[in-house]
Design goal:
185 residues; Alpha-Beta Plaits; 2 domains; four-stranded antiparallel sheet; 24% strand; globular; DUF1697 domain-containing protein; DUF1697
Length: 185
């Protein structure tokens, strides 16, 4: 099978009725860029695809530029490969809540935060939540759910490292989709 499997995570599309992007159109857009085995998952913008060439960084730039040209607004996109997703799941520091995906979220960050950025965030984490950063992933355990979490609300602007969050159910579904795409042929 030619090419490597990647997952593209979009942020800020189809939220609150704004910046609407239909998944069928998004899949067609990826195919038009020459990617193969394109599949999407739920409306928040998750696309599993296979690329013949390019790494995550190059693909991110290519897709962001083409997306903005087609839809007329910028969406921050995180592109990660299958091995990255496998590591994300295997390194989960909160296995005790993995069975309840509303309580566990993974933030894919544009870069690894500095120790200073992490400690600034830790000072604000005074509620029932706990978090751990591993490389460019922030794991957030929110016992009362993300919707009720005041900490989750302030997290992006406190950390100041751009990222996009997915609940654990999405993470596992994307890993499964990418794994299937990666193992066939």
């Amino acid at each position: 099978m030619s090419g490597r499997v990647f997952v593209a995570l979009f942020s800020g599309i189809n939220v609150g009725g704004n910046r609407i992007v239909k998944m069928a159109e998004l899949r067609a857009f990826f195919e038009a860029l020459g990617f193969i085995d394109v599949a999407s998952y739920v409306q928040s913008g998750n696309v599993v695809f296979r690329a013949k060439k390019g790494d995550a960084t190059a693909l991110t730039k290519q897709i962001e530029t083409a997306f903005e040209k087609k839809w007329g607004f910028h969406s921050r996109i995180m592109v990660r490969d299958l091995a990255w997703f496998e590591r994300l799941v295997s390194e989960n520091p909160y296995p005790e809540v993995a069975g309840d995906p509303t309580k566990l979220h993974a933030y894919t960050l544009e870069r690894q935060p500095t120790a200073e950025e992490i400690s600034r965030l830790a000072e604000k984490c005074t509620g029932p939540e706990s978090f751990e950063v591993k490389g460019d992933v922030l794991y957030l355990k929110a016992p009362d759910g993300l919707g009720k979490s005041a900490f989750a609300n302030i997290l992006p602007r406190t950390l100041k490292v751009p990222g996009t969050a997915r609940n654990w159910r999405s993470v596992l579904a994307l890993l499964e989709m990418a794994g299937k795409s990666g193992s066939d042929g």
